[in-house]
Amino acid sequence: MNRNGFGAAATGRLVPTIEDRRAFVPDPLPPRRPIDFGAILPELTRATQAVGELKGIGRTVPNPLLLVRPLQRREAVSSSSMEGTYTTLTDLFLLEAGASEVATRGDTREVLNYVRALESAIAGLERLPISTRLLREAHARLLTGVARHRGARVEAGELKRDQNWIGGSGRIDTARFIPAPPADTPDALDALFGFVNREDRAQASPLIDAAFAHSQFEAIHPFADGNGRVGRMLIALMLIDNGTLPQPLLYMSPWLERHKDRYIDLMYAVPQRGAWEPWIAFFLTAVAESAGETIAVVERLQELQRGWRERFQTARRSALLLRIVDLALEQPVRSVTNIAEALGVTYAGAANNIAELVAHGVAEEVPGSYPKRIRFPGVLEALGVG
Q1: Is 42 in contact with 50 (CB distance < 8 Å)?
Q2: Does the CA dihedral 135-70-242-276 come out positive or negative?
Q3: What is the dihedral of CA 151, 153, 158, 162, to 10 degrees?
């Protein structure tokens, strides 16, 4: 990457890096050029309304964890897939349930790392601001124990020590984009998080701030690997931290995965040409569409729960049936032992109630599983598992 595509409207500067190439260091946010908010007003209005509706639904759920957990796993599968790490939501649930047949699959374990990293980062907001430290901790969880085969020297939880680049089939001379050199990365991140945590941020649109921050993070590309996934975590963290959502319910990766080419094209048009408005409009559309999809998933899960409760909430039914189906919404593949422990009952007590749910077609045994595992196909279908 020399000056190809970078002109007077570029949102940063080009600096020398390895092999006589030029790397891009973004200017601090906010953008120097005023944003034409009129051009993105329809998208902003729609996205704000959709997030408001999602926020309202979140407040009506007695136990939001029942919805947050499956949504986070759906996000983990899609966000990881965009970076070439593939598994299925069913396999991820199976791994969490202790399935030995998927335990050795590296990609599934890496996606589970994403879940753990996201969960820990959200919990970390109680003790840390959104910061380099918080994202380094998330990165450490994301890549710890993961075998790398991409040629980069990756250290989990550490900022890059070598120049990285995007595209080019492993060659920097054909790279599509060369982000900030290692020496410039800490200062660029400090500037980014200074913007994210600025005192007057309440006066700005939190959705547009998230669009700014996500693009800036990807332009910095601070880690040797995992930048896309950590950058998409940043979106969720910002919307929780600034109070836009009371629970972490909005995850955009499933929608972004379906529009990956345009997502990447518009994101990298920002540093090259200062094309903020098309990027922000796209981002806000992603927010609105993702919120709508999440609302549909939540409504399907709630309808499923209501149907099960109406079906089994009778004087002659064991109260354990209702508790088991609630557990299924949170994690739709479980071992019988796990269910017994979660309910505080004996294995036999859990197994007897599970047998009744199987007889009614609500649950089914995972064929050939040992220890015995149970899945709830209705939940998987509501989540859109293909």
Answers
A1: no
A2: positive
A3: -100
One-letter identity of residue 64: P
Model pLDDT for residues 191-209, shown as the tens digit of each residue: 999 999 999 999 999 999 9
Counting Cα atoms < 13 Å in the Cβ hemisphere of 34 gives 4
Q: What is the amino acid identity at position 245?
A: L
Reported as a single tens digit per residue, the pLDDT across 245-266 is 888 888 999 999 999 999 999 9
Q: How far apart are CA 314 and CA 355, in angstroms?
A: 18
Q: CA-CA distance, 182 to 220, in Å (whole number)?
A: 9
Which residues fall within 8 angstroms of residue 244, CB to CB, at 6 or more apart? Answer: 51, 55, 206, 207, 238
**Residues 19-76 pLDDT 10s:** 999 999 999 999 999 999 999 999 999 999 999 999 888 777 667 667 788 888 989 9
Helix axes 227-241, 106-124, angle to 10 degrees: 30
Q: Can you give the pTM of this predicted structure? A: 0.91
In 229-342, DSSP assigns E strands to 333-335
Q: What is the phi/psi pair of residue 24, to 5°?
A: -105, 125
